[in-house]
Structures are given as structure tokens and as C-alpha cells.
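Still learning. Any example?
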Amino acid sequence: MLNKQLIAEITQIARRAGAAILDIYANEADFQVEHKADTSPLTIADRTANAIICSALEALPVQYPIISEENKLQPYTERQHFTKAWLVDPLDGTKEFVKRNGDFTVNIALINKGVIELGVVYVPVYDEMYYAVKGEGAFFEKDGQVEQLQALSFGLKDAGLKVVCSRSHMNPETEAFINALDQPELVSRGSSLKFLMIAQGQAHVYPRMGPTMEWDTGAAQIVLEEAGGMVIDQSTDAPLKYNKEDLRNPFFVAYGHFAG
């Protein structure tokens, strides 16, 4: 199955997961919030969406292993032999879901030898679909209309850059990055929506000097890259890599069309 055909299948899978999430979102009393070992929340919506996505991916004509936040993680001795694999975050922004502010997404990406080959990010509350295939551009679909995404061009010395930050995370390293800019304007969003704002030309940069996992970033990274942006490891200045032995991401900065 060609990637262009595959992306059509994946957007429909994301929509089905999103519809199930919204059914639960409408009934706050049934969120069934638990907490993982790292104290992050887990709801019935996470589990339901994960079941829908994994079942649908396993039913596709092409079969790849699935790396999901909500599945038991395969050991690296097994994962290191994966050429291609699905990377899934069935509900990115569970904290935002519990707060009922709408800033949560469904993320599905395909890894090929450590690089994201295609990605889909769906925003259920706003019925917004973002998707990209490597080398084919990034696109935004809403109300039956599709537009190609283009990130803003800028330099770090420019005044008034729009810096997108997490609603839930801020630390001294992030503050130091922001303080080095000239009159930055801060914009707060949750989940992978921070990447999407940059891909849409609504912000310039997103510094993340804190913990994230590969499934938090994979799908949104390729959308941003195909819109002309990049997501750079702060320690190596290289794009983020995937299906590593440690699935935690390094500190990174997501940029629009960076001109220096």
C-alpha cells in the first residue's frame, strides 16, 4: 500500500478514535481517571481509543508492529529489528482532557528506520485533521476543506517571536530560552497542538526542555517538517530519532522555517 493510500486509512482510524473519545468527554462522571507510576493520568478514553486504533491498524493490508503509549512495551532486543513500526498516542494531552479544555489529540505515525515517514494528528473537539507524508507536504482538513500548511520564516534575533508553551509544563531551562529572545510573545497550548500552531504559521518556536516520549512528538514532527519547519535535539542539533532503546525524547526545540 502506497503512503498516499495509507494516509487516507489512518485519518479515518484517527476519526473513529476521536469520536469514541468525544463520547466519553461528554460524560465527565465516567472518565474513570487512574494514575500511572509517573503520576500522569490515564482515563477510559485513553484505553478505548487505543483499542480502536490498534485493532484497525492490525486489520490493514500491510502489517507493522505497534509501539503505543498504552500497550505493553516490547523490549529493545525485539524493537531494534523493526524496520517499520506504528507509533501511537491514542490520547495526547490526557491532563487537558481531564481539565476539559479541548487541547488533546489523537496521534498516529509510521516509523521507517528511525525516521517518521507519515503522520496524522486529529483534534476531536474541533474536528481538525493534520497529516503529512515525507516528501509530499503537510495538510490541514476541516469542514471538508483541505489546505497545505506552510510555517513562518524567521530568525531567532527577530523581535516579537511567538513562542508556544505548554499549559502544564514550564521550567528554568525553558524560561532561559525564552528570556534570550527579543520581546517574545508567549502562547499557551496543550498536547501536540504546539507543533501544529507552528506548522500553521500561528507561532514561530516551541522549546521543550522537559520530558516527553516518542509517541508525544512523532506524528506532529513530520507535519511540522513537511510544512517547512524542524524539530531539533538541543544536544546534537539533529532531528529527533525514533524507536530508540530509550523511548524518551531528549530536550528539543521545534521551529518554523528557521532562517538563523
